[in-house]
Design brief:
homodimer, 380 residues, alpha/beta, Aspartate Aminotransferase, domain 2, Aspartate Aminotransferase, domain 1, 2 domains, 7-stranded mixed β-sheet, 3-stranded antiparallel β-sheet, transferase (chains A, B), Aminotrans_V_dom (chains A, B), Aminotransferase, class V (chains A, B), PyrdxlP-dep_Trfase_major (chains A, B), pyridoxal phosphate (chains A, B)
């Protein structure tokens, strides 16, 4: 129940252990087509360039920026946590000019600041922001932010690592031009693969580059020779065959549950967790309207030793919760409710474990009330 | 029995299916230390910067070039197959000046041409070559080539994707400065991870760069915060936890067998395969002294339909062999004997399957002699 990787279903683990076949085997290519089709549904897009990058989410981020940012390109980057900062690093490493908009960690991206930044800067090529900040548990208003980008003729680049599968991500509906995610959050697949999708406009931008993409591995022009819809599969790199078995199975499970049902499950179990935590007297970092159900940044009670609690949970309950990052280190815990780890059993375990552990340390919490509060929500 | 991915042992597949834990979990970090230690033994190096890149071999290649090549740097690249060409692409995409030495596909890198290139060019930063060309089955003389690089004050960058674990690779003994491999060849691990190692001289070169590494994901300065020996593990990206379980198990199996024993097994089974093929009248592309035991490029008999044979082997025997690449398409098959797929059973199956399939097509081969010829070698 940390910020990811989330627990992986035995079904997905079993799929991952199937015998390795060739990355050009006809059966494998058939599976690749199924993965592409399911990813399109998950991203809610018709984008032909929708595929899993053969590396973790950070490489998915890099795939978006290295293909779309050329030397001198202006990119507005919104930073309200760790991952916005990483976007800035990407823009600058590829020679782009980063116009940085900063919001306090724990708050969403301020739409008005973004409008102002576009008003002050001409010829902005792209707006980049994090939909669901894993470092803080904040959801930003992706739809409005994409609208502002389009109103100003810019591409919208979106980090959906923690949002995809946990809350609505509507690539075509919101007009996202380049998006990347990870497998190890709400898809509950082992880490190592990054689903990405590029709009036709983004594909055009890649094709019209003046300079070669400064990466061979992530060059979408090349990757599409292997993953594209042309029928012919040209070897680019050796695909991580078993990791794609796992992703395929996780996507099948997502289809079985239904995407909207998965979102509703995340929301309901978040509500239960929240009721239990609040009954104990533990509050949230993020305002209610911007809270992610799948990642709960909760305030560490006064005087409590952060690391001692996390170590006790891990040793006594085999339960991982995440530490705060950056300025939030020691101030918050990050409790994940992601994918197959988002269950009633985990919510109750976490509440009991926290209550017992904190009570044993004489922390200022109310005891004996959390479980009932959560159970009441679950019974609704 | 193609050019990789090779068959994966059930032990490694079972390891891969272990429950996913956090990439900062103390138990996982303990396993990372073991992986690093075993990789050092496998590479025969004391290099502190020895670690598995969280992506396939192509990304390992990119990790070497993106860290070591700065705009304007001169790099001599030896091309005698597909992968030398990819090295050239890497050098150029990172702004380097590529001095290309070409040798015919199927022959090793010509040491004299490399000496001449150094004589003709000043201030060469690095020499890059492929130790074992997967596209042709050729072994080049890595030791001599590294010596030439050092004699001229240049770094030696080596592709060991197909060599590592199948033939001797001696990083410290030969003075290799940057090396990358893959898990899916002679280590018989699923594809998706690339072991790399950088010498202290290479690390110095990265630290003394004038420009930032044009990749965030592959920047060795950052990756070392997570994989380095400092004790503290700073989060960089989410490691592909299950893929590293698999690599760990494959490395344990390699230690159980012993590295020298693994090389001897590859050589002996190559000898058996060769005896059988030659008895049938099928010859090799590569001269005997430069042949890789783990990758056999064999000449397709006159008048035989390449694809029809490979399809028949796959459908009737569930046996994959590789097609030729580039100019060698239709002219050779690439028969892999890699890692756990390098077994007596596979050699005999392959010979029988080829003999029956070719005989049914009235190909000009001798029948009824291959199995005995191979068995005689195996009995030695």
């Amino acid at each position: 129940m940390g910020p990811g990787p989330s627990d992986v279903s035995p079904r997905v683990l079993a799929a991952m252990a199937r015998p390795t076949i060739g990355h050009l085997d006809p059966e494998f290519i058939r599976m690749m087509d199924e993965v592409k089709g399911m990813l399109k549904k998950l991203f809610k897009t018709e984008n032909e360039l929708t595929l899993p990058v053969s590396a973790p989410g950070s490489a998915g981020m890099e795939a978006c920026f290295v293909n779309l940012v050329e030397p001198g390109d202006k990119v507005i980057v919104c930073q309200n946590g760790v991952f916005g900062g990483r976007m800035k690093e990407n823009v600058e490493r590829f020679g782009g000019e980063c116009i940085l908009i900063q919001d306090e960690w724990g708050t969403p991206v301020d739409v008005e600041k973004v409008k102002a930044a576009f008003a002050e800067n001409d010829n902005v090529k792209a707006l980049a922001f994090v939909h669901a900040e894993t470092s803080t548990g904040v959801r930003s208003d992706a739809k409005s932010l994409c609208q502002i980008a389009h109103d100003n003729g810019a591409l919208a680049i979106v980090d959906a690592v923690t949002s995809l599968g946990g809350i609505d991500v509507d690539v075509d509906g919101w007009g996202i031009d380049a998006i990347y995610s990870g497998t190890q959050k709400c898809l509950s697949c082992p880490p190592g693969i990054s689903p990405v999708s590029f709009s036709d406009k983004a594909v055009e931008a890649v094709k019209n580059r003046k300079t070669a993409v400064p990466s061979w591995f992530l060059d979408k022009n090349l990757v599409m020779g292997y993953w594209g819809g042309s029928g012919k599969r040209a070897y680019h790199h050796t695909a991580p065959v078993n990791s794609l078995y796992a992703l395929h199975e996780a996507l099948v499970m997502m289809e079985e549950e239904g995407l909207e049902n998965a979102w509703a499950r995340h929301q309901k179990l978040h509500n239960a967790l929240r009721a239990g935590l609040e009954a104990m007297g533990i509050g949230f970092l993020v305002n209610e309207e911007s809270r992610l159900p799948q990642l709960n940044s909760v305030l560490i009670p006064e005087g409590v030793d952060d690391a001692a609690v996390r170590t006790a949970l891990l040793q006594n309950y085999n339960l991982e919760i995440g530490a705060g990052l950056g300025n939030l280190a020691g101030k918050v815990w990050r409790i994940g409710l992601m994918g197959t780890a988002c269950t009633q059993r985990n919510v109750m375990l976490c509440l009991d474990a926290l209550e017992n552990t904190l009570a044993a340390m004489n922390a200022p919490i109310k005891t004996g009330v959390a479980a009932q509060a959560a159970a009441a929500v679950l019974a609704e």
